[in-house]
Amino acid sequence: MYKVLLATLTTLLLVGCSDQSWRTTDVADIMPPLDFALVDENGDSVQAEEYLGKPTLVYFGYTYCPDVCPITLARLGDAIRKLDDETRDEIQVLFISVDPARDTPEVLKRYTDAFGPEFVGLSGDKAAIDAVTNRYRVAYEYGEENENGDYLVTHSSAVFAFDREGQAQFLVRDSHPVNDVEADIKRLVAQG
Predict the structure, then answer these.
(1) DSSP string, 45-63
(2) Which of 35, 59, 108, 148 could share a disulfide with 41, CB 3.0–4.6 Å?
């Protein structure tokens, strides 16, 4: 009886150790795989399939954003810079603009270059942006233009993480500590 109990306990402990959850928010069972048809920061039409093979972080925002976008991307950049070179080389961050009228490929390239070589800007026409934002349940809305023609865009601030095959894994919110984000990125890369 004692041996059976010990064997059962050992099995439960081993199973528990391998069933580690993400430190951020697990979305593997509720979000669809990576899929889009957009334009990259070089002006080329691209499909999601072109980004498979590397773990991918996806953020929706716009370059004229006065606060949330630069803060979120800087936090991601901080987490990525804490990684060793080999792990860092495996990560890509796709910044998808929801403001294609102002975020031309040239503007996107200048913006993403400020955060690091892992960051790539994408956009497209309104229909393409709506298709990808609807797919991931990302809301955005344009504010009223001021006398200079400037406007704000209200948008979601979550970062979606996909594995090498484009399967959704976890979601990063502003409230998640950078150390948790770093740990989940390392684990995502280590999944092979």
Answers:
(1) EEEGGGGTTS-EEEEEE-T
(2) 108
Q: How far is CA 40 from CA 13, 43, 97, 107, in A?
A: 47, 5, 10, 11
Average pLDDT value over all residues in the chain: 89
Task: Yes or no: say if 80 and 166 are a contact pair by the CB < 8 Å rule.
Answer: no
Q: Among 120-124, 127-131, 154-158, whose mean pLDDT is lowest? A: 154-158
Q: How does residue 14 score in pLDDT terms, banded at 50, 70 and 90?
A: very low
Domains and CATH numbers, the chain: 22-190 (3.40.30.10)
Q: How many whole angstroms separate alpha carbon 138 and alpha carbon 103?
A: 18
Contact 120, 107 (CB under 8 A): no
| Matching residue, tokens 């400020």 | 114
Q: Which element (helix H / strand E) includes 176?
A: none
Q: pLDDT digit string (tens) for 48-84?
A: 999 999 999 999 999 999 999 999 999 999 999 999 9
